[in-house]
Design brief:
Layout: H1 3-14, H2 17-33, H3 38-59, H4 63-70, H5 84-95, H6 99-105, H7 111-116, H8 129-137, H9 144-148, H10 153-163, H11 172-180, H12 189-196, H13 201-208, H14 216-222, E1 238-239, E2 248-253, E3 256-264, E4 270-275, E5 281-285, E6 298-304, E7 309-318, H15 329-334, E8 344-345, E9 349-350, H16 357-362, E10 369-374, E11 385-388, E12 394-404, E13 410-418, E14 421-429, H17 432-443, E15 454-455, E16 462-471, E17 476-485, H18 497-504
Parallel strand pairs: 1-11, 7-8
Antiparallel strand pairs: 2-9, 2-10, 3-4, 3-6, 4-5, 6-7, 10-11, 12-13, 12-15, 12-16, 13-14, 16-17
Length: 505
């Protein structure tokens, strides 16, 4: 073992759980503070960077262990170590009480803070992060209350959150952004999210800090749009003002929007893969179903009705021109006239600056939505324009989780997006009609609603809601009515956190 390896081992062995737990609490606090506005966002980034600096200084060679404890999705360890049911049964057996008493006492309460209250309020524990992870692996053979006694409340919040695979303190791209600002050139969230589509967080860090030159070629590829390589599409926050901004085009949405990658593999065989805006595969097309006569590779944005591509709505990549997305919006779509398309392509429609938005909205037919497209390049991972809302008080909410209560009604949690990260903003009990629709929708995904919490973000179920009041201090919807489920919407249609801020203002 060389000196560098010995140093890394020493760092890892000395990394205390309370250090990382306190760091997680600090990051969480400033992350939510940063949501209040641009001024607060700049202050939050500075504070998060300041908190991250000692972490990078002390554990530079062991960042993978920090990722292991903070980010279940990217960890080398299991994403979840046990279930809520096991924890309940273990505690109830130790206390000699019925699980029914537990269910009644904890109805509607989050489990992690409740478990953390069983730990000492302030006493600093001696557990290292590696020891904590080892206990997690063995958690189903341990006494839960005795494990609680090994930590203080701050440590316990991180420990039990990681055991149950809950959401991290801050999104991974915010964590890496703060790392990039420590003693170097700070990078944008858009840039980091783009890297994460092809690299692990530890690889991204190595690139940001210049410790792995082999990643430079990959970084250059990330700035291009290559057929067959997924990317994060632009997002569209709500435009709630009464008049049209400058330099935008009207785009009428009549169906689901997808990114279609057409590739040749093996030689002479063409296929299409449909991706969502967050880079996940959502469908495949045979050669005969492609919207273009194959001859070279492409990346299109298309409108898709669940079976067929009905329209090409943007052209992102043509052949080996992986920089095609940098062309202006009109130039990209005018190129459609040169392609052997089998379906129509969108025709850019410029809107006059300052014109009344209500006229545009009144022209929409049932089931149609509209967005304003920026006239410049296809902004991968960044803002591509704005979504027009029928009313400033109407939001499109993402169903983030559900559970069945004791009355057999469905309790639903809803989120908006902070860029591409879901942020919970309200909890609502659905009506009988809404519950019936939702059960049917989830059944098509092969899942059932039960008394246990079910995460549903991956199924992209959206509801339209009317908002009457926003609690700005908590960034939540204080008075909201869930109107209906809308299966014509996709992840790109979820309202942004900026929309909530706009409403609060």
């Amino acid at each position: 073992m060389n000196q560098v390896q010995r140093t890394a081992r020493l760092e890892s062995d000395n990394m205390k759980l309370h250090e990382i737990a306190e760091y997680a609490d600090t990051m969480r606090f400033w992350y939510y503070e940063g949501m209040r506005g641009r001024k607060q966002s700049n202050q939050a980034l500075w504070e998060m960077t300041k908190a991250t600096a000692p972490l990078l200084e002390n554990y530079r060679n062991d960042m993978d262990t920090i990722v292991d404890i903070l980010y279940p999705e990217y960890s080398r360890h299991p994403e979840r170590f046990t279930t809520l049911t096991h924890i309940r049964d273990n505690v109830c057996n130790e206390l000699g009480i019925s699980p029914l008493i537990w269910d009644e006492a904890l109805a509607g309460k989050p489990i992690v803070p409740t478990l953390a209250e069983e730990s000492h309020p302030t006493n600093e524990g001696e557990l290292t992060v590696k020891q904590a992870l080892a206990i997690m692996h063995d958690i189903e053979s341990r006494n839960i209350l005795k494990v609680c006694a090994k930590m203080n409340e701050c440590e316990a919040r991180l420990f039990w959150s990681r055991v149950l695979g809950e959401k991290p303190c801050v999104p991974i791209h915010r964590f890496l952004q703060s790392l990039s600002h420590v003693g170097g050139e700070g990078r944008s969230v858009r840039y980091i999210r783009r890297l994460l589509t092809a690299m692990s967080p530890v690889e991204v860090l190595a690139l940001l800090k210049g410790t792995d030159p082999r990643l430079e070629a990959m970084e250059q590829d990330m700035l291009k749009t290559q057929p067959g390589v997924p990317f994060i599409g632009p997002y569209y926050p709500a435009w709630t003002k009464a008049t049209v901004p400058s330099g935008v085009y009207l785009d009428i949405i009549r169906g689901q929007r997808r990114f279609l990658h057409i590739t040749e593999f093996p030689a002479g065989e063409w296929r299409g893969v449909l991706y969502s805006r967050d880079g996940k595969v959502v469908g495949k097309l045979r050669q005969e179903a492609l919207p273009v006569e194959p001859g070279q590779e492409y990346v299109f944005e298309v409108e898709y009705d669940g079976t067929n591509v009905t329209c090409v709505t943007d052209i992102v990549c043509v052949g080996e021109d992986w920089d095609f997305h940098n062309r202006p919006y009109t130039e990209r779509l005018q190129h459609a006239d040169l392609l052997p398309l089998k379906v129509k392509a969108t025709k850019p429609l410029i809107l006059e600056e300052g014109s009344d938005m209500s006229y545009t909205l009144n022209q929409l037919q049932d089931g149609e939505r509209a967005r304003l497209i920026d006239s410049g390049s296809f902004n991968i991972g960044g803002e591509g324009g704005w979504m027009l809302m029928q009313s400033a008080l109407h939001l499109h909410l993402l169903l983030s989780s559900v559970r069945r209560n004791r009355d057999f009604s469905i309790e639903a949690c809803f989120s908006v997006m902070d860029g591409f990260e879901p942020i919970e903003v309200c909890r609502v009990t659905l009506t009988d009609g809404q519950s019936y629709q939702l059960r049917d929708r989830l059944a098509r995904e092969g899942v059932m609603v039960s008394g246990s919490r079910l995460d549903t973000e991956q199924y992209a179920v959206l509801f339209t809601a009317e908002v009457r009041k926003v609690d700005f201090s908590q960034m939540t919807l204080a008075d909201v009515e869930i109107l209906h489920m809308d299966d014509t919407l996709g992840m790109s249609d979820v309202s942004q956190l900026t929309d909530v801020v706009e409403l609060a203002g």
